[in-house]
Write a structure and sequence with these properties.
mainly beta; 29-stranded antiparallel beta sheet; globular; 34 strands
């Protein structure tokens, strides 16, 4: 029974709402009374949610938009149960402030932790300025203290050449992510970076100032973490001298290093350099450069046994050159739709030189304060394969089939170990004193068929005749949500793990996904994740189970997704 109350207002007795097609919808809401305002809202009381004709959920009140534009209102509540939070109930409210602003506000009730609240606000303006603010806070009844997370990201174009940026990520304590987040990359995060910057660009110059605060979540305290408050960079972009193929440029910076304890101070870095580009006979291309880096220091509060207190400076010259060429050939093929293959090979040899000087009296803020002097020769060969595919009378399609690059260096003179630690500066390159050859680096991306991708980035030690670092894997997928992938990583015997990914959609309408990471050095799984989704035309339901032994967390999620409505989750 429907009664018209006004031009766009109606009242329905025993009214039904659904976004499904057909006379027998897969789901529907049925309310005793439903007031509908076209291009506004529908409000129902004593509402039952039906799956087919089976009543499955009851709510005394429901509100949903009946127009295409965004509307303010309560979203579906979220119910949960995890090993760390216990039972939880989350009520989100969406606020469509304006066409360019929106916010989501929610109350989060957790039986093991207390009551939390959060807000996420976002905006965008016509001049490409945009921003996002996220805040979550809770009084943790387990630890009897307030805890929270604040994220602020902003990009404000004050003029076409002047931009102000913020990227702030702050937490109340080092274990916040372990207790309150479930997303991989957050619960196991080790470093939090926050920065505020202002950049001015001209045609040939750039000036940027930045305050950067680093929070080391692995350290016991943050008192010894070195902060850049501020760092100022001035860059003169390469400019060609009239009449000759020579370009001049300048990189410069000022950094104020600060921390609560240990040495702090300032560093000025000035590096003018020149670059020349020449085309030579036989298709050879020459690139040569030379520069001089001047570093000036003022340091104080150095501890016992540390060097660097006071003002001092040092200048170091560097130079280098590369010679390369490009060779290519096209081959006709008769492999199905693959008609032609273009092979391009780019061999390159190079040489770099850094002046050797004693830098022990200088302060040590980061590794750029200890330039490793000497000279290095290097070689590389890069290969590209591009395929031309032609089916029938249609236009040709070009696809990259192979990228393969081999490279290696040879230390002609100079130290190969870090003078501070006694270990190789680059663990994947320089091997040892007396062993001047670096590892052979192998980079490859292979796509022999459209749905198969194979990749690797590995280093081979020519002295030990073994791989010192391996990153390799493959991904296979089709157009029906079926996919499988494996990645393997091993570096200097420091860590070794295998990641597997599987997606199966062979039995419609079910889709199964599985992800796992197994650590060989820890002899156990770092994370396993299972999900099973059932898809229909106007709705879907998915069940997910995760186990993260490292974080001491596990749980399950049941998620309903109604087309045009959104998600309803239970944990």
């Amino acid at each position: 029974k429907m009664i018209k109350l006004g031009e766009d207002k109606y009242r329905l007795d025993h009214g039904t709402f659904t976004t499904c097609d057909g006379n027998n919808p897969s789901w529907k809401f049925v309310s005793d009374n439903m007031d509908v305002t076209m291009e506004d809202y529908a409000v129902g009381t004593n509402t039952i949610f039906y799956i087919k004709d089976v009543p499955s959920f009851y709510t005394p009140y429901i509100l949903f938009p009946v127009q295409r534009d965004r509307q303010s209102g309560f979203l579906f509540p979220r119910f949960g149960n995890t090993s760390k939070k216990g039972l939880n109930f989350d009520i989100p409210y969406y606020w469509a402030i304006s066409p360019s602003q929106e916010a989501t506000i929610d109350v989060d009730v957790q039986t093991r932790r207390g009551v939390g609240n959060g807000i996420e606000y976002a905006y965008k303006r016509n001049n490409d300025s945009l921003g996002k603010l996220y805040e979550y806070s809770i009084y943790d009844t387990t630890q009897n203290k307030g805890r929270g997370n604040l994220v602020a990201q902003q990009q404000e174009w004050l003029s076409p050449s002047l931009v102000f940026k913020t990227d702030v990520d702050l937490i109340s304590d080092r274990t916040f992510f372990l207790d309150f987040t479930e997303e991989n990359g957050l619960y196991n995060r080790q470093i939090l970076d926050s920065s505020v910057s202002l950049t001015k660009n001209w045609q040939n110059y750039s000036l940027a100032g930045e305050f950067r605060y680093v929070n080391d979540l692995v350290a016991t305290t943050n008192q010894t973490t070195l902060e850049k408050l501020p760092e100022i960079n001035f860059t003169a972009i390469r400019q060609k001298l009239p009449g000759i193929p020579l370009y001049l440029a300048l990189d410069s910076s000022f950094v104020n290093y600060y921390r609560d304890s240990d040495m702090r101070g300032q560093r000025i870095n000035l590096r003018p350099y020149a670059t020349a580009y020449l085309s030579m006979p036989a298709g050879l291309e020459l690139s040569a450069w030379g520069g001089y880096r001047e570093r000036l220091y003022n340091a104080y509060h150095a501890g016992a046994g540390e060097s660097g207190n006071g003002s001092r400076g040092i200048g170091i010259a560097d130079a280098g050159a590369t010679v390369s060429t490009s060779l290519s050939r096209i081959y006709d093929t008769a492999w199905g739709a693959l008609r032609k293959i273009k092979h391009t090979m780019v061999p390159e040899v190079g040489y770099s030189f850094v002046e050797e000087k004693n830098q022990d009296p200088l302060p040590f803020f980061d590794y750029s304060d200890r330039e490793l002097g000497g000279s290095v020769a290097s070689w590389s060969i890069t290969n590209y394969l591009t395929g031309k595919f032609q089916e029938g009378d249609g236009p040709p399609v070009y696809r990259d089939l192979l990228y393969l690059r081999l490279s290696q260096g040879y230390q002609i003179r100079g130290v190969t170990k870090d003078p501070l630690t006694g270990t190789p500066r680059d663990l994947l390159a320089i091997v040892d004193d007396g062993k001047r050859l670096t590892d052979i680096r192998i980079e490859a991306s292979i796509t022999p068929i459209k749905n198969l991708s194979i990749f690797t980035d590995s280093r081979y030690n020519p002295y030990d005749t073994r791989f010192s670092s391996v990153t390799t894997g493959f991904d296979v997928k089709d157009d029906k949500d079926n996919k499988v992938g494996i990645s393997y990583r091993n570096a200097m015997d420091q860590f070794e793990y295998l990641e597997g990914r599987l997606g199966v959609s062979l039995v419609k309408p079910f889709v199964f996904n599985y992800t796992a990471r197994y650590s060989f050095d820890k002899s156990g799984f770092l994370e396993t994740h299972y999900s099973l989704e059932y898809k229909q035309q106007c709705w879907s339901v998915s069940f997910t189970y995760y186990d993260r032994p490292v974080a001491g967390d596990h749980g399950w999620t049941l998620s309903f997704n109604l087309a045009g409505i959104g998600k309803l989750k239970a944990h």
